[in-house]
Design brief:
single chain; alpha/beta; Rossmann fold; Ubiquitin-like (UB roll); de novo design (two linked rop proteins); five-stranded mixed beta sheet; four-stranded parallel beta sheet; binds flavin mononucleotide; binds iron/sulfur cluster
Length: 447
Amino acid sequence: MTDGRTTLLSGNGRDGMAGPHGSRLLHGWYATGGAADLDEHLDRYGPPPFPRSADTADRLVRAVEDAGLTGRGGAAFPTGRKLRTVAGGRGTAVVVANGMESEPASRKDETLLDLAPHLVLDGAALAAAAVGADVAHLCVPRSRHRQAHALRDAVEERHGTGLDPVPVLVHELPHHYVSSEETSLVRWLNGGDARPLATPPRPFEKGVARRPTLIDNVETLAHLALIARYGPDWFRSTGRPDAAGTTLVTLSGALRTPGVYEVPMGRTLGEVMDVAGGATEPLRALLLGGFFGSWLPVRQALRVPFAKQDLASLGAGPGAGVLVALPHSACGLAEAARVLGYLAAQSARQCGPCRLGLPAVAADFADLAWGRPGTQLLRRLEGRVGLLAGRGACRHPDGASRFAATALHVFAEDVRHHLGLGPCAAAGREPVLPATQTPAPDERDWR
Ligand SMILES: Cc1cc2nc3c(=O)[nH]c(=O)nc-3n(C[C@H](O)[C@H](O)[C@H](O)COP(=O)(O)O)c2cc1C
Ligand code: SF4
């Protein structure tokens, strides 16, 4: 993965999609080439319009509903609906901003928090005002300590300016794949491990301190901060009526200028990749949504719009905006085997599919990619993949199952080759997907 800040420079203005005119969240970065401090942020956007009454709080919720903003953390759930549910809950609410970004192929939240921290802090404070919360927690991974430190400075900068009507607390959590799932955040903030909890109750019912809890991705909150200022019509003026606004994407793999970009929703995947200069060599497949996502055959995928409705027809979704371009020279099975090994190691090992099913699927994939698999392997593997989904307390096994099933489908030709002739030459090449050799967390690493 190339550093997002460097590559943003090279992507500046390309095709009018990610440049000063098209960008919103990254507008300041394009204008100055640096991170925005509070003065610059206020010069650019003005102060956030905090609701001062129940009526104006309701108007803010309605503006987010009318804007059609959907969550940018993975599931693309309507943000306005979540705000309204938490606002109507019993007891004083809590807001949690999810800046954990556990997805190894994503850099968009880290980039946003680096370049426009005050947009995220505005969004958390505005969301708190909208749902009547008395505190906002901003969660970032412990491995990004420098960023947590900078965010605490940014919070400090706002003290005494009236910009944070509720305290904003910055927390550093363990950085494991499932530690960023929303119930993991709740469990950690309540004093436990950063591991998923069984639901119900969902956090919007009983979350932090058993209070109604709004959990939103940091990018979602940054969009909310702009909707509060400029209104729903402005938000909808780019993108498509059914997929409004812009979105941050992390583009990597065989692309000329990989990095983090801001693109209007609804552009085709081919257009999105053009923002990063297009492919450097012939492509075989795209991975959309990262390790929680789906493999797509490249010919089918290029013309599909980046929007939940269109991607659903291919069994995919926008996820957290991760797109990896896999070249023909890579072995899809070896890439998939490394990722599944990582996902198996990273599970919280609390439920059956993660303790037994996922390691077995990962071992079968490794055998398929690098071993001398017997003829029974494929049938056994397909059966195991089919048993993963819908059986865990959280959706980790569902994501792994989708990743594995789409790999078997998209790389079917390679499967036949490996079963018949053993590993191809490409199986031993350098990985395209980010390094995934992270050791499994031990029992003490979750707190
Ligand atoms: C295994 C797993 C990992 C997740 N990781 C993240 C993450 O890194 N960041 C994030 O915002 N949401 C992540 N989510 C989704 C969150 O649980 C939650 O839905 C999201 O933070 C809600 O914000 P949004 O509505 O703004 O998207 C993850 C979900 C799962 C199942
Ligand atoms: S499904 Fe897996 S990751 Fe999710 S709670 Fe159960 S053991 Fe943990």
